[in-house]
Amino acid sequence: MSEEEKIKHLYHKYINRTCTDAELEEMFELLKKDGNIGGVRSVLRQNWEEGDSLEELSSLDWNTFLQRTNQVDREEAPAAPKMKKWLVPLSAAASLLLVLGVAAWFWMHREVITMYETRYGEVQEIVLSDDSKIRLNANSKLYWNENWQRTGRRVVRIEGEAFFEVAHRNGNPFFVKTEDLTVKVTGTSFNVTNRRNATEVFLESGEVVLELHQEDGSEGEAAKGEKSGEHSLKLIPGDQFKYSNATRKLEQKNNRTIEQAASWKTGELIYKNVPLHEVLQELTDVYGKSFVVQDSSLFEKNVDVGLPYSDWETVKKLLKFTINAEMSENENKVTIK
């Protein structure tokens, strides 16, 4: 592998945040050698313009980067007077310092991700490094950027369900992201469910803004911390919105309570006049069970029941009496007849 190919390989790893400290030092040493600064220009441009791993660096555009690293296209730059030969090494050294300075800035502002994960039937209490408190529901994953103090933005990504109590930090907005939408908050309490290609948000207290993602998965202005656009929604306590980026379908419910929208947070699964098929969907998410209903008419039967979250055997018995049907279980497959 040539030195230029090696630099490009290391830079790809750096941009994708898989570069070790030792590999970063190796890249710097290779850049110090004559002629290697310009050799990575193409890969710099490609990663800057195409990769979304630099979403936290949106304030520094490509032209600004080129100006700082003295890498502006020759055909775009005005003709410069000839320099004396003794000035050439000085110019190269200044260019190298700028490259290393910007690269070091990137490194300090990279994402440092911690992942939290729960199994079926498990709930985890989490206190983030910004003092925000999160209750992570079963069968869920949460990704948190520990480098928020340098980036200025507190960002989590959720797959599954979680209840958030966000600590107020002046100047550090908090974002919860899914493939469907971004929730922008300051200090408030809310529930986010991201399952089956849709995201549902319930606001218990405070105020949040939902930025609905476009069909291509791109984020609107509010997701970037700017002024809200036409695809944003402001929630007040009691609001519950469900949105799917895949279908572009938006559903709204008002005047909801925590028992109606996220009873799992209180240690129960409470259903009031809810169709059985919706109940079975949530039990699948929480406990990892699959259900076979032999009498299809039961699917639309409305259920009124409160189930203890932590005890599957009790859940199964109570559900059996509620729907007045026989239930049997074999290797996580529950048959209802």
Automatic annotation (TrEMBL):
- Residue ranges occupied by any FecR protein domain in the UniProt entry: 116-208
Q: In what residue span(s) does the Protein FecR C-terminal domain sit?
A: 269-336
MF term (GO), any: sigma factor antagonist activity
What are the TM regions of this chain, as residue ranges?
86-108
Q: Which UniProt keywords apply?
A: Membrane, Transmembrane, Transmembrane helix
Annotated Pfam families: FecR, FecR_C
Give the source's domain of life in one word.
Bacteria
What PANTHER family does this protein's entry cite?
PERIPLASMIC SIGNAL SENSOR AND SIGMA FACTOR ACTIVATOR FECR-RELATED, PROTEIN FECR
Q: What is this protein called?
A: FecR domain-containing protein
The lineage is: Bacteria, Pseudomonadati, Bacteroidota, Saprospiria, Saprospirales
